[in-house]
TrEMBL record:
Transmembrane segments: none annotated. It comes from Amycolatopsis eburnea. GO terms for biological process: protein lipoylation. Pathway: Protein modification; protein lipoylation via exogenous pathway; protein N(6)-(lipoyl)lysine from lipoate: step 2/2. Keywords: Ligase. This is Lipoate--protein ligase family protein. GO terms for molecular function: ligase activity; lipoyltransferase activity. The keyword Ligase applies. Residues 28-209 form the BPL/LPL catalytic domain. The keyword Lipid metabolism does not apply. It holds the Pfam family LplA-B_cat. Coiled coil: none annotated.
């Protein structure tokens, strides 16, 4: 079996992170790819969501919090340095695209000392969501990613995301109470949390070999920045620029 790749990359611009996230899938890897990353403060909406229904726009503008759009579906999430993003890319078709990532995150959280359960579109401890899941498919593979609340407070998340609307629509986020590892009394630090995720991924999916980004991944990232992630209309309403 070909070993998977544990990509070690960090970008300071959230648009670059989102572009690289998608680029990992677009290059069609032949074995699993794992990437752990963090963003500066921002709000990220799902592919087909409407910002006005998901985001407290005035609060974001007041505090200088950018609102961006990703390529995958799923709900709106708040990112900051207290939140660990986990990207898993799997080659080929899969019947249950989120199952592998759910298993990885469950095993990691269990190792950190909590008892998780997989619920509707996320991982829960008790009634509070600890991390959400989203997925994006292509003909050659799928990308599943998760946002794990490590230190970010629930109050901070609620400051920038709207409550559930009175007239729910299919693409609206499914709002749930949230609580971070720290709010559950677990404060291991990011190196320990990342180590737990990497160990769980290796246990469930096989060996992951650390490596830097490939030239193909960086080239695809730059192309996606041009057509999507550095293009204001993409973040506003999902419109792309011609290549």
């Amino acid at each position: 079996m070909t070993a998977g790749s544990d990509v070690r990359a960090a970008f300071t611009d959230p648009a670059e992170n989102l572009a690289f996230d998608e680029a990992l899938l677009r290059v069609a890897p032949e074995s699993p790819v794992l990437w752990l990353w963090r963003n500066p403060v921002c709000v990220v909406v799902g592919r087909g969501q409407r910002i006005a229904r998901e985001v407290r726009v005035e609060e974001c503008e007041r505090d200088g919090v950018p609102v961006l759009r990703r390529a995958s579906g799923g709900g709106t999430v708040f990112h900051d340095p207290g939140n660990l993003n986990v990207t898993l890319v799997l080659p080929g078709p899969a019947d249950r695209p989120l199952e592998a990532l759910g298993q990885v995150m469950s095993a990691a959280v269990d190792h950190l000392g909590l008892v998780p359960r997989i619920g509707d579109r996320g991982l829960f401890v008790g009634e509070a969501k600890l991390c959400g899941f989203a997925v994006f498919r292509t003909k050659t593979g799928l990308l599943a990613h998760s946002t794990l609340l490590v230190e970010t407070s629930a109050a901070l998340v609620g400051r920038y995301l709207t409550s559930a609307p009175p007239d729910p629509r299919p693409l609206d986020s499914h709002r749930s109470p949230v609580a971070s590892l720290a709010e559950h009394g677990i404060r291991p630090g990011f190196p320990a949390v990342e180590a737990a995720v990497r160990a769980a991924a290796s246990q469930i999916l096989g060996t992951f070999v650390p490596r830097p980004p490939t030239s193909a991944e960086r080239d695809r990232q730059r192309a996606l920045l041009h057509t999507r992630y550095h293009y204001p209309s993409w973040h506003a309403d999902g419109a792309q620029r011609a290549a």
